[in-house]
Please model this.
Amino acid sequence: MRNHRDFIAETDFDRDEVIETLALARELKEWSDKRDEPAPLKGQTWGLIFHKPSLRTRISFEVGVNQLGGNCIYITENEIQLGKRETIHDAAKVLSRYLGGIIIRTFSHADVEKLAFHADIPVINALTDLLHPCQIMADILTINEKLHRCEDFKIVYLGDGNNITNSWLNLSRLLGFELVVATSAETLPDMEIFNQAKAAGRSSVSISHDPKEAVKGAHVIYTDVWASMGQKDQLAAKVQALQAFQVNSELVSKADKNVIVMHCLPAERGREITDEVMDGPHSVVFDQAENRLHAQKAVMTILQEAK
Ligand code: CP
Ligand code: NVA
Model:
């Protein structure tokens, strides 16, 4: 019997749990300058298995686990060679005897699902080629802070249909909003995830190849790098396909006048987003980055309570 919960995909939480995460993250954010913060991870060591580089995710998780009273071990591919030196099953069983939880960033989403299935402790997806659920929780927290609502807004995602796009599609199954994915025919998101989001019927989801039309009335404009980690060899083709989808001042001027501009970072300034927009009055990218910490602390607390 499984006596723990994981956070591998947004849909591991239901709608009420997303709302609860937002409320708890807000509370933890207010608490973070005080000394009486709760310590649900006291006495625990969490493992951070990272097979791709990271600034925000690694550091916000390490800081977050520490602030919740626990410790972290950072584990790279060189050490455990997940699935190579021994099976994922065996690694999951052994790690479960030492750790309070596992935070993993890797390429294969199936590997993370397998690890979570065999582990006896919570496993959190810190980004795979398919999804980046921790980012999306921080994003919706930021939107809630800036727009004072977490539903009934129009978000236009411009650029490569990637793990961030797929995660936004997943969130649209839980909360109700209008999501337009503005991208080229060559850079679509995962169409199975898109179709599931459409079928769920909670949000209005669509794909547009016309960025200027798509951003009309947008409350949120979101972009990400055109070639994700592990796909940098596809950059030239992506640049060719996505030129018209750059987030620049002209495009931003066509959205709602109070539009917020989001980017999960790291950004390739001058490519998918201009300096003028990144550093301009609509940008909330650094609030978004800060909120990684608060949202993830809320997610870890909820998983801990479910044990
Ligand atoms: N946004 C994000 O996940 O950043 P890192 O790749 O630096 O962790
Ligand atoms: N889509 C990007 C997100 C980085 C946080 C990547 O996977 O590289």
Q: What stands out?
A: The chain is about 40% helix and 15% strand.
